[in-house]
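Q: Hi! First time asking for a complex rather than a single chain. Here are the components, and I think there are two in total. Is that enough to go on?
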Amino acid sequence: MERMFERDKDELRSMGVEIEVKGLDPLFEDDQGYLIRTETFQLNGNEFASDELLYLTMAANLWHDSALSNDSKGALLKIQSLSGPIEFNVFNSPVVRDNENSQMLATAFEAIEKHKKLSFKYNGSQRSVEPLGMFMRSGFWYLVAQDEKVIKSFKLVRIEAKILTEDGAFLKPEGFDLTDYLKKYTEEEVFEAEILVRKEQAYSLRSKHLVKEYDSEWDLMFIPYSYEPEIIENLLWHGQNIIVRKPLSLRNSIVSRLEEFING
Amino acid sequence: MVDNAAIRALRTMDLIPYILENPGISISSLAAKFSVTEKQVENDLQLIFMCGLPGYTPYELIDIVFEDGIVSVIDPQVLDKPRRFNKSELIVIALGLQILIDINKSNPAQLAKLQALSKKISKLGSSNLITFDPLATNSVFLDLIVKAISEKKHLEIQYNSLIKDKKTRRAIDPQSLYFLNGNLYLSAFDLDVRSDRVFKVNLIEDCMVIDFRDHNNLSEPTKLFEVVLDVKKSHRNFIERNSSVISSSQEIGDRFEVHIQISNIEWLKRSILSNAPGITVTSPSLFASELVESANSVLALYQA
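A: Yes, that's all I need. Here is the structure of the assembled complex.
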């Protein structure tokens, strides 16, 4: 029985519950008791105004259909324990849908928090990495981790089979900051494409970029870009309604892609 | 999850403030909310009956009533507030607030409140090691759409269709809003073509509430095309982004054989061409020839 009690206390502590051991009865000072202080354990009822509770509900509800649904549900229960029933409107606000693996996300979150190494198979090879952070881009989660002294990003949906936590902790590289890393990751040289757009076509491009009259059939447009494959994809979407004039390298890339596609 | 004593104790502590704020809730609703069986909720309530504070008289016991499947808390003792958010819950809330900030950029009043709340949540200990890139979606019509869904009102929208490459006006019955692949989508029933449609919210250029049109949401049957694609590994992003239309995908060396069932063939044509030569059509052969013809027409513009 005592062993069970010890195990249950350990379990509660591992779940973040602070349990104090102290004499609680002034008449029997030697008798040790257990105390969980409400201020270390409970939310303060006055911590959030009613409109804030509504925003918190919307924020947590955003994830109820995603791989983070368990945490979303847990947060929503606590918010509703402060706010009471929620306005119906909230449940019609947007939700995130993804194809991520919730177990993988939970393991990665915990490993980042506790500085535990992770091992998994990626691009056919086994990796043992030191996880430093995670970010979501275009609806997909990426793990930022140190792999053989190089900081890399791993797309979570491309991790093959399971992601496992290794024993022992690691030291986070000095000076690492996720925001700075992401800034460097996205800082790229900006180029400009000069393109012809057929009149009355390619409305999605017209709504974003400045258009000049060129001739009776075409308009002229300038589009800034950083990543060539991305602009090629966007331009080829419009098929015969776009011709790239400059830069020549971009024009040549499009031509060679089309030739390869046609010749198989 | 195995229901051990610690988990049960924590759930019990969660149940009391929840019932306190939602008096008269049914055991079946509690079971659904807490993802446990009704029997487990009943057992937890029985346990609560015997819990209280030192002193151990009836005055120090938690006072709870449940009858005919309905529960209310009369005296929660000190358990009148929920437990603090754990780390993962704080992450979910912080990320959610970041999304709300991104989509409310055109609403300064809401934006200021959301930013202040976001700061408050980060002080509670949300992790700055888990984040996401800002979303491009920012629609002035978002509030109107949410309200229309809640109040079951119909909308008329002007939509800049990427697939048809033209602006159209549509009368729709809006159903739900969701983020997928970083974009915000509106799922709706198109009242004119009598079919379900999905719209990218940032391509809605105008939006207004219109008179309700009586209809049933039964779509006209849509014809599905089965297409087999050969996708290079370098283009597997296409598979990851379009999993909802992919019926099977098999890795063969440095490529994937992908089977797609789709009604919107124009979308597929544009997608294949824009990924050329990373994606090619294996079957039907007629569709493959049609795409090669389209590619030839584009190429001819560069050779003129």
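A: Chain B has four domains: 5-75, 87-123, 155-210, 225-303. Let me know if you'd like any chain examined more closely.
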